[in-house]
Amino acid sequence: MASAACHRILRLFGVSGAAVLLAGGAHPQVIAQAGDVAANPMALPAVRGLIDRALSLGRAGRTESHNAVDAHAIVTPLRRDGVTVGVILMWRPSAHPFTDAELAQSALSAESLGMTLQLHHVGETLRRSEAQYRLLFQRNPLPMYVSTFEERRIIAVNPAAVQLYGYDEARFLQLHSADLMFVQSAEERARVMRETAPYHRIQGLVGQHRTATGRTLDVEVWTDEIEFEGRSARLVLVYDITERCNAERELARVSRVQRMLSACNEALVRSQDEPDLLARVSDIALNIGGYRFAMVCMACDDEGRSIRIVDWPGQPPNHLRELRVSWAPDGPGGQGPMGRVIRSGEPVVMDDLAQHRDELVMADASLNLGYRSLVVLPLRDAGQTFGVLNLLGGEVQSVMGRSELALLMELADNLAYGIVHQRARQQRRLDAARIAQLAYSDELTGLPNRARLSEQLQNRIDDTRAHGGWSSLLLLDIHNLKALNEIWGHQEGDRLLRSFAQRLQLATAGVCARLGADEFVVLLGPHRAGDEAIAVDEATGAASRLLQALAYTHHSEGWVFECLCSAGLVLFNGHDGGVSELLQRAEIALYAAKAAGPQSLRRYDRELHAAVVEHAQLDQALREALNQRQFELHYQPQCDVNGTWVGAEALVRWRHPQRGWVSPGTFIPACEESGLILRLGLQVLEMACARLAQWQAMPHLAGLMLSVNVSARQFRQPEFVRQVAQALAASGAPARKLKLELTESVMVDDVEQVTGKMKALRELGVSFSLDDFGTGYSSLSQLQRLPLDQIKIDQSFVRDLLTSPNDASIARTVIALGQSLGLDVVAEGVETAAQRDFLHQHGCRTFQGYFFSRPLPQAQFEEGVPALADPPRALQRLS
In Å, how far are 461, 472, 713 from 573, measured between CA atoms? Predict the structure, then answer.
């Protein structure tokens, strides 16, 4: 009996040795042992002290983990009838000290062995005296009953058993031993009864009994054969080991959770990403933790604060596929355990799902699938719960101990750390990929950018240098993309660029990249021909075919755009410059192609280079001219039909110190291209206001209106109104004599903003004229909204109105439109009397052109001296 107990202790506690010592004589004697135990435990000082204390004080003890001992031990007193009769000794190597939990469990094992000794003592007493037995049976604090040997009918029961099971004595004596068993089925009960029937003695049979109230007890049953009232019977001693079994189960669960925790930590290290980590942990929960199902859910920050299932092992049950839960306190599905855990950050343990049907929307479905218990653990980071780990077990759990719950919380915290770490790791990967994409790819089109192109171009240069032959670089520019952006917005421009990039990738097998806003690059070749002329023909042919393939009509909502390109081509053989030089030469060739118009192709050569140098020199000269105020104004009269001056238009001229007079057709486009038009426009405005102020002292000029051209770019400047007001104030010129000529291109902007600026200037007294009407983008509705005073018929319509019915019709229409809107109409470019007469006949009253006068230098204009050799009679009279 004692030997069996020692072997059981070895299995339960995992110790290296166990022994039972009984008091008697000078020293306790070893009556049973198992495993590796010292021959004379009393010879070891630490153990001897523990044994003496257990025998004298009845207290269990263990060696301390910090003491330097050869091995660690637990000594627990062994009692019979409340008297300490010996001890149980357990032994373990020094590397593995005993815990407080193991100390407590050893006390339970000692009580069980004491109970066995008590049963043996009662049986011996019975054999000596039945009367003495009955007294001992009735007064024994341990639950006992007597049953017939064959039928197992209970024929005697002591008060301790009555108290344990909750039956009164009369009801107890109507039961059979099988009635006390708690088994899953009648077949299981019959099996247990059959297997125990042949044995006269049963020692330490562990099972479960059920009380009168239905409560389940873990019991250990010991029986002995006795003579009772003249017949053979069984004396049954029932020891309530529920507390011990709970402790053993908790120890087993704690050990299991510890293994889970260890495996989870390994998964944290080995997992590649978040899904891999969740799959590993779910598998650990099933295969190591013994749970039937594991599920990770995340709290969403959507409107309904929903909870999303993100991982489960295998296929989820149907009822989980349709699960709709929330962590909102007042939302549907928000009162369940997952919602409570997310809100509170505290775990929820449901030992028996059948007792929580009112809390779980999935309780019945889960019970039908064999799930009996649930643990919901918070996944936390920085004090916030962002998800939960659900563990469903297949058995009703006993009350979960603190140690097990603490370990499960540690597991959940480790999992949460792993999730956060994997998300941060994934974000770093995405950021790195994004950085690489931004560093080497164009964000809008996805094509390689300038940096990536530079690498690829350098590789091609090296390749042609090493292997000979030629390659070529083609630089493409989308024609008029700027106008598209201004009219329809950059969103439509971006859409066109993406479409163009896709066509470019489909049209060429070579390397292509986006270099700038509307510029794309294609590497053609390599052209393996050794002869440059043959390589030029091959490259030019390939570039021309590509230009044709890229020309298409781009359709969008309510508008179409003819996508045409200009292209610059440069050949290289690896010995004629690096990346920057080749790109610069391609820019030079592209500049010439753009000047030639859409769908033009130009190849870089020395003549092109010289032209670019000249353009750069012109730009530098313009900057010096602005700084030195080399520009001056000429004035072209505006006359009535008789040639009487009613106004003038200020026209800017440039006399270069070395070049002489430079044509406005040369320097004004150059200023527009470089942005110098803003500085030039401001100087023109200041000079015009200054002369207008001077004219007020000249009677023959004081009544004239002076028109000044304003570019659309200048008008768009936020400070334009302030600049006009300052020029007027500084010069003292009367604002009512100043007329600003705007082109129709200003109408592509926000009409409300344009109108606001014009009204602000009109409040100063400034008037407005719409120049070159009919050549731009204006509509009648836009024209009606602008505070205009005058419109001008463009000279392109006046030039051929006597021979072109279309031009004549346009001229008549503009005159009629001006009359209907109450606007003055001025015809530009009038060069003959016939043109004047036609326009006058149809209602035009003001004229401007060489028929009346060329633009005059300031001095000639102010003297009234015409610049024509044969001026009109009106000007002769004025002279």
Answer: 7, 9, 43
Residue reference for tokens 């050893």: 106
Q: pLDDT (tens digit, 9 = 90+) per residue, 485-509?
A: 877 888 888 988 999 999 999 998 8
Q: Are 417 and 276 in contact (CB under 8 A)?
A: no
| pLDDT given at position 117 | 62
Please tell me the total number of residues recorded for the chain in this structure. Answer: 879
526 three-class SS:
strand
Q: Are 241 and 112 in contact (CB under 8 A)?
A: yes
Longest dimension (CA), the chain: 166
The distance in angstroms from the start CA to the end CA of the chain is 147
Q: Please give the full DSSP string across 689-700, using - where no structure is assigned.
A: HHHHHHHTT-TT
Q: Give the closest residue to 592 by CA, choosing from 465, 707, 477.
A: 477
3-state secondary structure at position 230:
coil
> What is the predicted pLDDT for the residue at 159?
93
As beta bridge partners, residue 656 has 660
- Cα separation of 759 and 105, whole Å? 96
* Residue 689 pLDDT level (bands cut at 50, 70, 90): very high
Beta strand residue intervals within 325-372, DSSP E:
325-326, 348-350
Task: For residue 597, give every residue at least 6 positions away whose Cβ sits within 8 Å of its Cβ, in sequence order, or none.
Answer: 566
What is the 8-class DSSP label of residue 746?
Answer: G
Of 231, 232, 170, 224, the residue nearest 199 (C-alpha): 224
Other C-beta atoms lying within 10 Å of the C-beta of residue 601: 21
The pTM assigned to this predicted structure is: 0.46
By three-state DSSP, how is residue 391 classified? strand
- Please determine, for residue 781, whether its predicted confidence score (pLDDT) is greater than 80: no
pLDDT band at 570; cut points 50, 70, 90: very high
DSSP reduced 3-state for 167 = coil
> Residue 878's pLDDT band (boundaries 50, 70, 90)?
very low
Q: At 148, which amino acid appears?
A: T
Pairing of strands 767-773, 790-793: parallel
Q: Does position 135 have pLDDT exceeding 60, yes or no?
A: yes
Query: What's the pLDDT at 354?
Result: 81
**Quick one: which of 12, 198, 1 has its CA closest to 114?**
1
Q: Shortest CA distance to 236 belongs to which of 327, 122, 341?
A: 122
The answer for 577, left when phi > 0, alpha when psi is -120 to 50, beta otherwise, is: left
**Under a CB-based contact definition with an 8 Å cutoff, are residues 371 and 292 in contact?**
yes
Amino acid at 311: D
